[in-house]
Amino acid sequence: MNANASTESAGTPELLMPQALLARTAERLAAQYRGIVSEQTVERVVFESYTALRRTARIHTHLVTLAGRFAAERLSALAQSTGASTKTVPEVLFICVHNAGRSQMAAALLTHHAAGAVHVRSAGSLPAAVINPIVEQAMTEVGLDLAAEFPKPLTDDVVAAADVVISMGCGDACPVYPGKRYLDWQVADPDNHPIETVRLIRDDLDRRVKALLTELHPATT
């Protein structure tokens, strides 16, 4: 039996098996966002999120749970971008191609250093199935655990909610919205590199996010 058989049987339509779980997820999120986002929009975002993650997933065992987390992030971003909810801290979005290396490292480092003073998201223009294990190792060495993270596709809602959008090697994939700060960081891709090189990339990103945090919140540093 292959890895996908734990949740999907042969010949079963793509969304039939998880449909009830996704519907419950949508109900829970609709209750959380009642009066902020319509139930129809919540349901659409939940099912879209599942379908988007399924395209690159290797194992589907926890895919509904991940889709729920992804949908919750998107709904939060949607509420912020439409003014239905108020931002309390600056929003930073990191983007790279696969969301499996640079953008994940940068997001984890900024989240750590900001200690709640900045809200951070990350995404990929062509997300991978999993985070690069060498990247996970390099981050574990500095006390940051990426085990619960996963690559996410880039969506308009998270870009619209961001105050600062930082791309690393994803070209013109990012939609442009007025009134936002766009930065392009020339950072090497850790893919197919040994741990020694990935450590250098990690440390480069650490310096960059600290400088960014100083600009966003001088008191934090």
Q: Structurally, how many domains make up the residues?
A: 2
Helix-strand topology string:
HHHEHEHHEEH
Alpha-carbon distance between the two ends? 52 Å
Q: Portion of residues in helices?
A: 40-55%
What summary fits the major beta sheet? 4 strands, parallel
Low-confidence spans: 1-12
Radius of gyration: 18 Å
- Average of the residue pLDDT scores: 90
CATH architecture of the largest domain: 3-Layer(aba) Sandwich
CATH C-level label of the largest domain: Alpha Beta
CATH topology of the largest domain: Rossmann fold
Structural class by secondary-structure content: alpha/beta
Rough shape? globular
Q: What's the number of extended β-strand segments?
A: 4
> Strand fraction band?
5-15%
Can you identify the CATH superfamily of the largest domain? Response regulator
Spatial order of the strands forming the largest sheet: 2-1-3-4
Compute the number of helices. 7
Structure description:
With 221 residues, this protein is of the alpha/beta class. The chain has 2 domains: 15-86, Orthogonal Bundle (Helicase, Ruva Protein, domain 3), CATH 1.10.8.1060; 88-220, Response regulator (Rossmann fold, 3-Layer(aba) Sandwich), CATH 3.40.50.2300. 44% of the residues lie in helices and 10% in strands. The protein has 7 helices and 4 strands. Strands 2-1-3-4 form a 4-stranded parallel β-sheet. α4 (102-114) crosses α7. The N and C termini lie far apart (52 Å). The model is unreliable at 1-12 (pLDDT under 50).
